[in-house]
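From the shared-data thread, chain only:
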Amino acid sequence: MPHPRKINLSASQFSSVMDLLNFVATVVLLTASGALAPGPLFFVTVSHGARSGAKSGLVFSIAHTLVEFSLVMLLACGLLTVANEPVVKLTVGVAGGVVLVVFGIMQIRGSLRSRFDETRSGGVATRNLLLIGLAFTGLNPFFVVWWLTVGANLILLSLEFASLAGVVFMYICHVWMDYAWLTSVAHFSKMGTNVVGFKWYRLILTVFGAVLIYFGLAFLVNSLGF
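Structure, as C-alpha cells:
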C-alpha cells in the first residue's frame, strides 16, 4: 500500500501560510462586525424581505457590492503610490484604531438596548430594489467613514500583501458575508421571523463589538509603536 505523500514546508513557507491565514482571519472578523450590525441597509432588507423574501436580500447585496467595490478600488489606487510612506501608515492606523474603538463601544451599547428601531427604514415604497440598495449604501455615513479609516488600513495591508491583487482578495474575503447575511435576513423576514429580537443576535453583536475594540487598540499600538 503506497504511503501518503508528505508535504514539507520550509520555515519561510510556513510563515507565509500563517501570515495569509492571519490576514484572512483579520479581514473576516473586522468586516463581519460591520456586515452583521443593524444599519440602514439591514433595516430596509428586513422591510422588503417581508414582501419579497431572499430575492430582495440578494439584490441589495449586489447593489451594495457595486458601490463598495468601486470605493475600495478607488481608495486602493489612491493609496498605491503612498502605501510605504510612514506618515500615511501612521495617519491611517491611528484613524482606523480610533474609529474601531468608537464603533465597538457603539455596537455594544446598541446590543444592550431594550429594542432596536426596526421601523426607521420601513417607509421606503418603491419597486426598484437595486436603486434602494445603491442609495442606502452610498448615502450611509458610517459606511463611508468605515472604509476611509478602518477599510483604508485593510487596503494598506492588502497592498503590502499582493498589491491590487491583494485588495481584490481582501474584498472577496469580506463581501461573501454581505450576501450570506442580507439574503438570510430577507428570507427570515419573509417567514415572519424577528431576527433582531433573538438573544443570540444581540450576543453576537456584543462579542463583535469587543472584537472591534480589540483590533482598534491593536491598530493604535502598532501605529504608535508602543
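The radius of gyration is 19 Å.
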